[in-house]
Amino acid sequence: MNGALLTLDSVNTFYGPVQVHFDLSLGVPAGKIVCLLGGNASGKSTTMKIILGLLKPRSGAILLDGQPITNLPTPAIVRAGVASVPESRRLFPAMTVRENLLMGAFTRRDRAAVQQDLDRILELFPRLGERLAQRAGTLSGGEQQMVAMARALMGRPRLICMDEPTMGLSPLYVDRVLELIQTISRQGVTIFMVEQNANLALQIAHYGYVLQTGRIALQGSAPELLRNPQIRDVYLGGQSVQQK
């Protein structure tokens, strides 16, 4: 895809003898929200792992702004501008909200700017400002998801990879998280999100891919996918959805 910040080019990934990706290729344009849809065992979470360097593909290339990151260790990928909001949040539960947020800036050395960013991010997440001294493990699921998103922003990323950001949240927090993703995108951060709930993802995304058993089965703009009969029948229960 022309103008892509993130590119996966003919990626083949294995867990031992089991192949997970089959010549997987996709692109995430700068400044856009792109979703990767698919059912269980389709290879969605593995896609996140290879982008973040947690798993190395056997062949193919992963490019960030045209530069290969395929063989870089995870800390180097983070320093290059990639942040993660992992599935199930994966906070440090015994640490305070403030400490968890500062962990997002662990690769940075500009301490004064880190404090400025913390102040700015707390304006975006005011609820967290009320809970800075609270242990992260005592927060609700929705509040923990906000901590995970704010932690990712503390690294000043160009790209945030989000793995199932609405999973397990109450309807109220689902709506709030989706609004925050849109707000972060409008501030210039590129979002690549894995999501099983196609309805939710396509309401805020610009573009989407559908992954089936490690292969791209469908792709297109979010409005196109919302109108696609295959998407409606398989993922939306036959219902068309109006994009927000």
Walk me through this protein's architecture.
The chain has 10 helices and 10 strands. The chain has 244 residues and is of the alpha/beta class. The protein has a domain at 1-81 and 158-164 and 190-244: Rossmann fold. The strands form 2 sheets. The chain has a 6-stranded mixed sheet with strand order 6-7-8-3-9-10, with helices on both faces. A 4-stranded antiparallel sheet has the order 2-1-4-5, covered by helices on one side. A hairpin with a 2-residue loop joins strand 1 (4-15) and strand 2. The radius of gyration is 18 Å and the shape is globular.
**Basic shape:** globular
Helix content: 25-40%
Q: Tell me the radius of gyration.
A: 18 Å
The CATH class label of the domain at 1-81 and 158-164 and 190-244 is: Alpha Beta
CATH architecture of the domain at 1-81 and 158-164 and 190-244: 3-Layer(aba) Sandwich
Spans of at least 5 consecutive residues with low confidence:
237-244
CATH topology annotation of the domain at 1-81 and 158-164 and 190-244: Rossmann fold
**Largest sheet properties:** 6 strands, mixed
Q: Count the beta strands.
A: 10
Distance between the termini: 25 Å
Q: Please tally the helical runs, counting DSSP H or I stretches of 4 or more residues.
A: 10
Q: How much β-strand is present in the residues? A: 25-35%
CATH superfamily of the domain at 1-81 and 158-164 and 190-244: P-loop containing nucleotide triphosphate hydrolases
Mean pLDDT: 89
Numbering strands along the chain, what is their spatial order in the largest sheet? 6-7-8-3-9-10
- Helices and strands, in order, run as EEEHEEHEHHHHEHEHEEHH
Structural class: alpha/beta
